[in-house]
Design brief:
Blueprint (H helix, E strand, L loop, with lengths): L1 H4 L3 E5 L2 H11 L11 H4 L22 E9 L25 E10 L6 E5 L5 E4 L3 E4 L3 H17 L7 E6 H10 L3 E5 L3 E5 L4 E5 L2 E5 L1 H9 L6 H13 L1
Parallel strand pairs: 2-7
Antiparallel strand pairs: 1-4, 2-3, 3-4, 5-6, 8-11, 9-10
Length: 239
């Protein structure tokens, strides 16, 4: 299959976090929930997804695919540089950058688990008006609509119903809000990048990580497996 050839990997997860993602996407009105733009409406599936019985919690009426994008934006990525030179490439609270993490989550009303397909950020694909580029650049050039179309095209026209975008700061705060996460770290991880003020220092073993350390675990990719290793660690954290 195409996604196997590309190095895509899948995992099934069953957790409160998965349910929370679905609730935010389909059934509630969080602070940053947006109406679909005209461009997005042309891409995302508009078929009804949940029951509207007010006497019960919302229920899915069919399988739902949600595109999850994790964005990292640095001051060096901005078209307009900041007025004050910080002396390093700081993280920016923005969603208009490269998507370092790309997941396709499938919620099925007949199953107890959420299926997750991870897509390596360096996957080469052809995007209209931009030629052959890395898949993670689609969000930078055209936001969720262009990214969803690129992912759908890559996966043989799989329908995508909604999307979620978060940045690095958002994931860190989410982990802290959940009280941290326990994960087994398979090896010592150490990396320093003064240009980004990125400092990773984790020891091997089972640990309970706060938001900052969880982001160190998720962002580490400085071994022989590169980004594929990072994808595997993302899946480990979700489990």
């Amino acid at each position: 299959m195409l996604w196997l050839w590309l190095g895509f990997t899948a995992v099934a997860m069953s957790s409160a976090a998965a349910g929370a993602i679905l609730a935010v996407s389909l059934a509630s009105t969080p602070l940053l929930q947006n109406e679909l733009t005209p461009d997005e409406k042309s891409v995302f599936n508009q078929e009804e997804t949940i029951s509207s019985n007010s006497m019960h919690l919302p229920e899915l009426t069919r399988p739902v695919n949600i595109l999850f994008l994790g964005i990292k934006v640095l001051t060096s990525d901005l078209k307009q540089p900041p007025e004050v030179d910080l002396g390093y490439h700081a993280l920016v609270n923005s969603l208009e950058g490269l998507s370092d993490t790309m997941l396709l989550l499938r919620f099925d009303p007949n199953g107890e688990k959420v299926k997750v397909l991870s897509m390596p950020r360096d996957t080469q694909t052809r995007i209209e008006k931009h030629g052959k580029i890395k898949l993670n650049a689609a969000n930078y050039f055209g936001g969720p609509a262009l990214t969803a179309k690129a992912v759908s095209d890559l996966l043989d026209d799989v329908p995508i119903d909604r999307y979620i975008r978060v940045n690095v700061q958002g994931v860190e705060k989410l982990v802290d809000a959940l009280g941290g996460v326990t994960v087994y770290i398979p090896k010592d991880m150490k990396y320093t990048d003064h240009s980004q003020h990125l400092y990773i220092n984790l020891k091997k073993g089972r640990q309970h990580l706060d938001g900052n350390k969880a982001m160190q675990f998720l962002r580490f990719r400085y071994d022989k497996y590169g980004d594929i290793g990072r994808v595997q660690r993302q899946q480990m954290l979700m489990r």
